[in-house]
Amino acid sequence: MATASGAPNPFTASEPRSSTVRTAILDLEASRIREVANAGIGRSDVLAFWFGESDEVTPEFIREAAIESLRRGETFYAHNLGLPELREALAGYASTLHGPMEAGRIAVTSGGVNALMLAVQALVDAGDEVVAVTPVWPNLVAQPLIMGAKVCTVPLRPVEGAWTLDLQALLDAVTPATRLLVLNAPNNPTGWTLTRQEQLAILAHCRRTGTWILADEVYERLYFEDSAKGCAPSFLDIAAPEDRLVVAHSFSKSFLMTGWRLGWLVLPPALVESIGKLIEFNTSCASVFTQRAALAALARADEVTPRVVAHLRRCRDALVPRLQALPQVSVSPARGGMYAFFQLAGQGDSLGVAKRLVREAGLGLAPGSAFAPEAEGWLRWCFATRELSRLEEGVERLAGWLARQG
Questions:
Q1: Strand (E) or helix (H) holding 75
Q2: Structural element, H or E, at residue 179
Q3: pTM for the whole thing?
Q4: CB of 247 within 8 A of CB of 234?
Q5: In what order do the strands lie in the sheet with 366-367?
Q6: How far is residue 53 CA from its own chain's centroid?
Q7: CB count, 10 Å around CB of 184?
Q8: In which element (H, E) is residue 15 found?
Q9: Using CA atoms, how far apart are residues 382 and 342, in angstroms rounded to an integer?
Q10: SS3 of 365, please?
């Protein structure tokens, strides 16, 4: 079949599908988290803890800021890099946490996912070597694969339910041939968090090898250890503006704004113009009314985020001891993030187990295999919920299901 111009229609041509769609895209694995969720979405009897978001709605004053923006008719394009006042506010927010920050280093993006993809598009060519620490949210490995990169992984190792980094193994994996190192800490799904000493060693090593660091720090405020700044250790605390470091952030977790799709990047000055061009070719800009909502959120960050973190700590402390009381479960309290990542003894197929839990126990969890092969046999439980009773009921359902397995 031909098109109106007489050229062959690429979607009906007889050639193999790989001739019309890039192999890197064909080889992408569909989300196993979504596969489990699709088995239970719409069922009122399922307690869903599979996605990484709270079931609490965005605070009303943030929603009202967006509504007021729409009422003013702010429905037009904005600057590629974001509203100047939002970039200034984000620089002030970062300065409070990590020391002086120039607004000119900030790029506002259409979500944290978009921020990470833009960074990879800017830095990675086909054939480049990328190193990633896993288990990790699957997008962070998929994004360089989409660009045609070769991805090498350095796995964290579980010790009594807590995942730890072999720092020397990571340093050995990053060589002058490594274009980009991808790190997510606090980590989704494990809750592992880099120490300051580890960050110093990694930054010094990457300076020597000329390797870029892409630090996904979207969970930095969801941190449960003692911290004078109220956040996890950040590369921004120790890096110079000119370092080969890109840090990705999002409004999703700390401000209960997952559906708003708004994030930002902190960049070396030399990279900002290129990111602005990429934003133009990806999304043009973030919507003005969502940026107005973000301004309202930042203005009252000290009111919103500490409350969110305090509640998440209560959720963690309600869930983890109950899981630890189950003899088949190995789990350790997360230092950061919003997840309990636990191992079920004798249950190797995490995807199959997660589907069975939906079907047989009405319990929705994410399979460990979605995050890395080494996480097979593990399950991720997002404990960000308004009602602690939901967590208690979930553990009862898990315990009942385990008892029925004999």
A1: none
A2: strand 178-184
A3: 0.93
A4: yes
A5: 329-330, 339-344, 378-382, 366-367
A6: 11
A7: 27
A8: none
A9: 11
A10: coil
CA 381 – CA 312 distance, rounded (Å): 13
* DSSP-assigned letters across all residues of 243-283: SSEEEEEESTTTTT-GGG--EEEE--HHHHHHHHHHHHHHT
Mean pLDDT, the chain, integer: 93
**Dist. CA 216–CA 180, nearest whole Å:** 13
Number of H helices, E strands in the chain: 13, 15
DSSP bridge pairs for 184:
216
E-only strand ranges, 205-256: 212-216, 245-250
> In the structure encoding, which two tokens stand for residue 355, read together?
């589907």
In the numeric block, which tokens belong to residue 359? Answer: 């079907």
Query: Residue 364 is inside which H or E element, if any?
Result: strand 363-364
Distance between first and last Cα of the chain: 58
Residue 25 confidence (pLDDT) above 50:
yes
Digit-coded pLDDT (tens) for 238-284: 999 999 999 999 999 999 999 999 999 999 999 999 999 999 999 99
DSSP state of 234: -
* Alpha-carbon span 102 to 80, nearest angstrom: 17
Q: Is omega for the bond preceding 306 within 30 degrees of 0, making it cis?
A: no
* Run of H or E residues at 19: none
Q: What share of the chain is helix, strand, coil (3-state, %, to 5)?
A: 45, 15, 40
Residue 266 and residue 247 in contact, taking contact as beta carbons nearer than 8 Å: yes
Compute the distance between CA of residue 1 and CA of residue 186 in angstroms, rounded to an integer.
52
User: Which helix (H) or strand (E) element contains residue 346?
Assistant: none
